[in-house]
């Protein structure tokens, strides 16, 4: 009986100690989120929906209603400028619609490439999307090597000579979309764009 009372007493103390640890950890996390907010709130951005979840509710609601989340991003860019912040938990993401800033971020080795986001670009919706290439390469040396190989194929003079082919393939795509629209048929844009891309590559390579 005495042993049972002792064990219950120890268990109660352990649970109390664990509870206080959880409370302290929770308060510490709240303070950390507040610190992150104070650190980055000088950057313009839409008001947060929640202290903890930031802008997640707005984005989840847009996706749940079959909306296009990028339309909301574009709306925020028009309202808050070409560079704005969005918050999720203790994470802060900077969105930019400035071509010069995008070029600087993608080409400069001093900006670290976030592994999670670049991994999502490799596979999208469970299918290979960009794979390992110029867009998804996180190692600058690997990126630079691929860029040097591809440079001649993307010179302005060479590309201007291919405008006829680009326009021809684009017109073919528009005809296909018009046909689908007339028949009120749903268009698989990913498949169509992939077909156009492969068609252009096969024509100009």
TrEMBL record:
Coiled coil: 163-190
GO BP term, pick one: cholesterol catabolic process
Listed transmembrane segments: 6-32
Keyword Calcium found: no
GO molecular function: cholesterol 24-hydroxylase activity; heme binding; iron ion binding
Source organism superkingdom: Eukaryota
Pfam families: p450
Keywords: Coiled coil, Membrane, Transmembrane, Transmembrane helix
Family: Belongs to the cytochrome P450 family.
Listed name of the protein: Cholesterol 24-hydroxylase-like
UniProt source species: Pundamilia nyererei
Gene that encodes it: LOC102206140
